Amino acid sequence: MKKRIGVVLSGCGVFDGSEIHEAVCTLLAINRNGAEAVCMAPDIELSEVNHLTGQETGAKRNVLVESARIARGKITNIAEVKAGDLDALVFPGGFGAAKNLCNFAARGAGAAIQPDVARLMKEMAAAKKPIGAICIAPALVAATLGKEYAPKLTIGNDSGTAAAINQTGSSHVDCPVTELVIDRDNKIVSTPAYMLANNISEAAEGIEKAVKAVIELI
Question: Of the residues 12, 39, 135, 175, which is catalytic?
Answer without folding.
Answer: 135
